[in-house]
Amino acid sequence: MGQSAEDFKGKRKEILLLTLNSYCKDIHNSDALCNQCQELLDYALVRLDRCPNNLTNIPCWRCPCVCYNEEMRLRMKDVMSHSRSYFRKHPVISFKYRFG
Predict the structure, then answer these.
(1) SS3 letters for 4-25?
(2) Calpha distance 64→53 (Å, rounded)
(3) pLDDT at 51
(4) What pLDDT was estimated at residue 65?
(5) Residue 34's closest CA among 71, 79, 66?
(6) For residues 18 and 25, what is the distance between their CA atoms, to the nearest angstrom?
(7) pTM listed for this prediction
(8) Helical packing angle, 5-27 and 91-99, nearest 10°
(9) Which of 56, 63, 74, 82 is 20–30 Å from 27 (CA)?
């Protein structure tokens, strides 16, 4: 049985928060989100809520729409590159996100 669009969107939001927290802690040495990371999270959540492909469950990296401006796209690219190490450290979360 497939996921509903709301479940999929909720999962994306959860992963965004986890990866940004990990990134900010490792890169900016901050236990809470710094202003820069909070700004990126807020920006990403607005884009996710407005996403025209929520019903199709297309991952952002495969989406033909360009939702992010250039600066935010580059910042998110850094976060996502860093998130690979996060998921290697937390394989259960990675498995849950991909399959569950």
Answers:
(1) CHHHHHHHHHHHHHHHHHHHHH
(2) 10
(3) 84
(4) 83
(5) 79
(6) 11
(7) 0.80
(8) 150
(9) 63
pLDDT for 1 equals: 46
Instruction: Give the model's pLDDT for residue 62.
Output: 80
Ranges of residues in the chain whose predicted pLDDT is under 50: 1
User: Sign of dihedral through CA atoms 84, 89, 95, 100?
Assistant: negative
Assigned token pair, 65: 């729409």
- The position carrying tokens 């509903």 is 4
Q: How far from the centroid of its chain's Cα atoms is residue 88's Cα?
A: 16
Q: Where are the domains of the chain?
A: 5-99
**Dist. CA 76–CA 95, nearest whole Å:** 22
